[in-house]
Amino acid sequence: MINFKELASTYKTPLYIYDLNYMTKQYEELKEAFKGRKSLMAYAIKSNSNLSIIKHFADLGSGADCVSIGEVRRAFLAGIPSYKIIFSGVGKSDDEIREAIQKDILYINVESEAELGRVELIAKELGATCRISIRVNPNIDPLTHPYISTGLHDNKFGVEIDTAKRMYIRANNSEHLDPVGIHFHIGSQLTELKPIYESAEIVADMVRSLQNIKIELKFFDIGGGLGVKYKDEVTIKPYDYAQAILGTLKGLDLTVVCEPGRFLTANAGYFLTKVLYEKQNGAKRFVVVDGGMNDLLRPSLYKAYHKIEAISQSRTDESKADVVGPVCESGDFFAKDCLLPILEHNDLLVVHSAGAYGFGMGSNYNTRGRSAEVALKDGVARLIRRREEFEDLVALEKEFLVK
């Protein structure tokens, strides 16, 4: 049982709290599901990029799925070896591509013909051969929120099958490209198995067609996106997920690469915020807290649901309230019409399922410092990122201040 009052007293609020034991359990369950075949779990750093979190997964044997050179650097800092690091993302700059090639990572996931051309040119300039995978867009509806759908032709990610085949032929004929993998990722927060199976089947068939023209791949990168329970979602069991994927790979000698993020971290995280006061506008009740949309953006961005628990001094009958922060935007809220008891100054609210896409999507809007982060392991709390102070926010500006 987490002692939120003690953590608030020690580290102040707003505060992110992460349960590392829960992350270990999730990682081991997913890894076990794929035990029947060679596999690599490559933690999706974008879900929670704190160095201590990345190192925790590195210590468990994880690789890293990165979507910027900054994330690649974080992976190295946290101790993930180069041969377990993948660099994905639509808009890689020349400098990012160059550094990834020089660091000799496992492979770069290529998202377009234009990008393939840049990777080839830069590898040639470096006198190197770059291992690549191509992200295939199977055009399967993932049945998730449109903002986190990535596998349709309407999305910016990946290339269609015919384009991918042309790219593989070009890469195979190049002195500076080594096509070693194929990649697909149809979306995040997936709770339906059928679209995953259908996508894997399409991509596995493409691997077989490439074999027919003597292009032999080594890695079958299934992306991530396995959904978690925020409210009442019925989620996919890791074993069923793995069996659906593996069922499409009969006769293929491939290492499965999985890129879990949310599945590992979401329900391991809590956002702790303090009640400042309540206010009433006509019939509308507001609970004003010290955390804001700059700390946790998901409710404002996606209208995402997060369970909110009151740690109240005096429990009373619950009534509906909007939980809002101090940021100067009407969109600054954590919940609308949430059932809560009457709350007093310094009561605490715990926002659940905040371990993924929480702190990482934060900002300094309204010149607000980002919160501290704390990790719990075996019941012991440890600060893994200090709270930002005003001097941190202006440090990059002060020397350029116009006189």
Q: How would you describe what is shown here?
A:
The chain has helices at residues 4-11, 20-33, 51-59, 69-77, 94-102, 113-126, 161-172, 193-212, 238-246, 262-265, 298-302, 390-394; strands spanning 15-19, 39-44, 63-66, 85-87, 107-110, 130-135, 177-183, 219-221, 255-258, 269-281, 284-289, 308-311, 319-324, 333-340, 348-351, 372-377, 380-385. The protein has 403 residues and is α/β, with parallel strands linked by helices. Strands 1, 10, 11, 12, 13, 14, 15, 16 and 17 form a nine-stranded mixed beta sheet that branches. β5 (107-110), α6 (113-126) and β6 form a beta-alpha-beta unit. α2 (20-33) runs parallel beside α9 (238-246), α5 packs across α6 and α8 (193-212) runs parallel beside α9. It is globular and about 70 Å long. The termini are far apart.
Please specify the SSE layout and strand pairing.
Layout: H1 4-11, E1 15-19, H2 20-33, E2 39-44, H3 51-59, E3 63-66, H4 69-77, E4 85-87, H5 94-102, E5 107-110, H6 113-126, E6 130-135, H7 161-172, E7 177-183, H8 193-212, E8 219-221, H9 238-246, E9 255-258, H10 262-265, E10 269-281, E11 284-289, H11 298-302, E12 308-311, E13 319-324, E14 333-340, E15 348-351, E16 372-377, E17 380-385, H12 390-394
Parallel strand pairs: 1-16, 2-3, 2-9, 3-4, 4-5, 5-6, 6-7, 7-8, 8-9, 11-13
Antiparallel strand pairs: 1-10, 10-11, 10-15, 12-15, 13-14, 16-17
